[in-house]
Amino acid sequence: MKNTNLKKGFVALIASTLVAVFTVAIPSSASAAETCTKEYLTTVSGGVDFTKCVGTDVNGSKYEIRMPAKFNGTLFTYAHGIRYGVALPANPAAGTPAVPINYEPEVAPTEAVAQSMLAAGYALAGSGATSQGWNLTELTDATLQVLQIARDKYSKISKVVAWGNSLGGLTTQALSEQFSGAIDAALPMCMADSAQAEITMAGDFLWGLKVLFNPAIKGTGYSAGQTGYIEMLGDLAQVRATLTEIRTAIIADPLRPKWPTTSTAPANLQAIPVRAAVMLLGLVSGISTQSNTYDGVAGPPGASETTFGAALSPALAVLENGAEAAGLAVLANYDMERRASGVVFDNSTTNYSTRLGTAGTTYAAALSGLDAARGILLYLSAMPRVKSDPAAVATLNSIYQIQGKIEVPTIALSATSDHITPAGAAQYLINQYNDAIDNGKAKAGKLVVIWNKPPNEYTKFGASGAITPTVPTNGVGHCTFTTAQVMTVAKMAATAAKTGKIPSSTAVKAAIKSDENLFVNPNYKPDLLKFRQ
Amino acid sequence: MKRLSIVSAVIATGAMVLSTLPAQAAQTTGVTANEIKLGISSPTSGSAGLVYGNVPGAMKAYFDYINANGGVNGRKIKLVHRNDKYTVRGAATSTFDLVYEDNVFAVVGALGTATHQSGYKAASMAVENVPDLFVNSGWSGFNDKVAYPTTFMLLPTYAMEAKVMAKVVKDNFPGQATFLVAQNDEFGDDARAGFGAASHKFTREFPYPQGGMDIATARTILEAIKAVPGKPVVVLFGTGDATVAMLKAAEELSLTKKFTWLAGSVGADANTLLALKVKPETIDGVLSASFMPDAKDLTDPYVKQFVAINTKYRKGKAFDNYVLAGMNSAMLTVQALRAAGPNLTRDGLMKAIETKGSKFASAGLVPLGYSATSRIGYNGYWVSQINAKGEGKPYGGKLVIYTTDSGAGAVTENKTFVRPTMPKNGIPTNK
């Protein structure tokens, strides 16, 4: 895997030691139940023969390995994003089917990417950990397991790239920092920040929904056992109903939409358009003001374009994004509380005025003016807060945290307006890496972050208003990279694995030149997640 | 040994060149032997476009005129405009693209407070050291050299304007009730701070969010104050569309003459008000603070010259206060580029404005205040009264120039300021 000069040889020794440890740790029976089949993939340029092997590792995690007949020597081990840690029943009223816990392995962000990778000669591997939810530790271990199983099975693997989406992106970084000898390059995509940073973002929004619009939302402190499960399901229903009511109110009267009937906020507060309150919650939580439908710029042609773009669009974007963030908050809080045996969300000392910062003046139009924002902030300051359980937080924080101790070439891909894993998570990785360099814990020149921005304008209007795109808008939403974008960065990572170096700035720019939404810019510094500000 | 020294010297020189190249390139980004590329982010569509849409076209017309007359030190000026739709996100992407896609040398005439705050940050203009010239905002925060190290404002601060307005009210309308209808953001907050500094207390204030003033809202406000005895003063501190809404509502309620209207400079362009169907008799008598001459005053040499340029380079398009403002900004830009000399650099440009900018020729009827310690452009106001033709004449029949600061300083009459003479044919020759 490594060159044989003295210094690199030393690294190789450490790496092989680590690998040997894993070899020892993994009984040969790990892949005893493995089943392999010959597969054929039809592509535009012909076809790809590959072998697909599925099995279960020593911990019971399912894995999958795909090895193309024309293998180029590089294996990509994929870590998937967060999945529900509990099964969700069908909701006939909402028209949603039952969702079982998904333990299936994934080898790439999408099947289209997987096929393109195989066609390019890369082998793929991935797993589905036995524990879902915030399973950073379990997923890191499962990824290491499948990596080693693949190595044992295919001696022709010369280079390994770890990659992953969302929580899988964080898993990739965890793997890279803790077991750098096991891989040659890392490719974290739309990576999540730590559990506390993420739950603070989603939790702040959920808490705001509760105190402003619907006190029936529990939000935190779920009971043990079946009672807690029912509480969690109840919260999902309450969040959905509340956001639906707000959405309906905005559709009925965009300029002065009313508050939900469940709100117990005083009448003078409810005189403020509810969209402004939603906007404020988004800004103090760090929810993106661009969403799949709303770009925060465009408006219907004519004089009302300005008001829509300046005042309505950002708030509607927060509402669209917030629906997912609030749902995530319920599920993640429930999951993390069970894992850590206590409340992990904490806003007992949060100053939401400070959180708003200069965004209050910048987005004054969407907030219906500074006085409206000040009024809502005053109300929030008087509302009972949530205090976490210190032991639970300690448990949560004992899970891997980004250190920035990067030893293998790392290429990160992050969207500027991802509302689940904001670009600030990648910025935090940059900051931690720079600190690690300054402290002598990492060497310079091992990290490049490629940003993915949405088109400048993408909101389209029909006779009845904005039209939600039929395909996800690239650059907004969560992990909405195109196959071409993922292939571009994957090939960079494969090259980096071979050379031991990140691509030069010139090489990166040349590689992404044809993509309007990708860019590199050392001076682009998105805001960190609110937890870290 | 000697050979080694030569090699070392070559290596050292090479290293020096390599280490200085990036900084040097950043200093001259957007500048070639034949061209200077500038950029502007402003609205040209929507309601904001109806009001401010002429600004970039006016700037381009003036630059075209200068280009036709040899350019600046042999370089033609190219102005790249991006329509930000007067939105925070639009300004962020527009300014980002100007800096990183268009690679402009400087941004000129950016319009709006919240929008430009957003654009400046998104494009890392401070880090990139991109000159930010003649910003069309009076928010006093842009004078903060720490937060905005490359910014030069054009407008006086809104706090200054409010202080001058307070003096006008105090001197001319004693005993009358006063009402403030102001945009509820940093624009209005700056104004409220200015009125506070002048110890002026309004009978009642009506804040509203940007884009939130429509005729229905305006009617509600007027209904609430129509019974106040006397002839109350209504101060309008917002954009042109809000002024239009207030005046149209007054028309509907037959209250146009019930009040003395005192409009801020941002929202008081008579041509725009007339174009947006406010009746001539309604605007007749409206007072406005201003730092520029009236666009209809063809006796003013600056106006006369700019009208001529407008006629030739913007054929068939009207000349109004925003066209005048745009051309004036462009002329200031040309002087700044000239003052920076033929070896144009970003640092050189900003230094030139700091050291020479207060002496630039300008249509403004009040002094420019650029110095090493101040990035505020115009320092003061005069008060005009609009007539039914849309002309702005000095209130009281005599031009009085007021100067003040953004803080607690007094508002005083400036009797010594002499406006620099318009350069011959409107073509600056300064160095």
Describe this structure in words.
The radius of gyration of chain A is 24 Å and the shape is globular. The two termini of chain A are 40 Å apart. Chain A has 533 residues and is of the alpha/beta class. Chain A has 16 helices and 12 strands. In chain B, helix 10 (240-252) links the parallel strand 8 (233-237) and strand 9 (260-263). By secondary structure, chain B is an alpha/beta fold. In chain B, the strands form 3 sheets. Chain B has a 7-stranded mixed β-sheet with strand order 7-6-8-9-10-11-12, sandwiched between helices. Chain B has a 5-stranded parallel β-sheet with strand order 2-1-3-4-5, sandwiched between helices. The longest helix of chain B is centred in the N-terminal third of the chain and has 26 residues, at 2-27. Chain B has helices spanning 2-27, 46-52, 54-68, 88-100, 113-122, 125-128, 158-172, 186-197, 215-225, 240-252, 270-275, 280-283, 301-313, 321-339, 346-356, and strands spanning 35-42, 76-83, 106-108, 132-135, 151-153, 178-183, 204-208, 233-237, 260-263, 287-290, 382-386, 392-394, 402-403, 412-413. Chain B is built from 15 helices and 14 strands. Chain B folds into 2 domains: 35-156 and 297-379, Rossmann fold; 158-292 and 382-413, Rossmann fold, CATH 3.40.50.2300. In chain B, 59% of the residues are buried. Classes of the chains: A alpha/beta (533), B alpha/beta (431).
What oligomeric state do the depicted chains represent?
heterodimer
Distance from N terminus to C terminus of chain B (CA atoms, Å) equals 50 Å
- Major sheet details of chain B: 7 strands, mixed
Would you list the SSEs of chain A in sequence order as H and E? HEEEEHEHEHEHHHHHHHHHEHEEEHHE
The CATH superfamily of the largest domain in chain B turns out to be Response regulator
CATH class of the largest domain in chain B: Alpha Beta
Mind sketching the topology for me?
The complex is a heterodimer of chains A (533) and B (431).
Chain A: H1 6-25, E1 35-43, E2 46-56, E3 62-68, E4 74-79, H2 111-119, E5 123-128, H3 136-153, E6 159-165, H4 167-178, E7 185-189, H5 195-212, H6 225-252, H7 267-270, H8 274-285, H9 305-340, H10 352-356, H11 359-362, H12 370-382, H13 390-397, E8 410-415, H14 423-438, E9 447-452, E10 460-462, E11 465-467, H15 483-499, H16 505-511, E12 518-519
Parallel strand pairs in A: 4-5, 4-6, 6-7, 7-8, 8-9
Antiparallel strand pairs in A: 1-2, 2-3, 3-5, 9-12, 10-11
Helix pairs in contact in A: 2-15, 3-4, 5-8, 5-9, 6-9, 8-9, 9-13
Chain B: H1 2-27, E1 35-42, H2 46-52, H3 54-68, E2 76-83, H4 88-100, E3 106-108, H5 113-122, H6 125-128, E4 132-135, E5 151-153, H7 158-172, E6 178-183, H8 186-197, E7 204-208, H9 215-225, E8 233-237, H10 240-252, E9 260-263, H11 270-275, H12 280-283, E10 287-290, H13 301-313, H14 321-339, H15 346-356, E11 382-386, E12 392-394, E13 402-403, E14 412-413
Helix pairs in contact in B: 3-13, 3-14, 4-5, 7-8, 9-10, 13-14
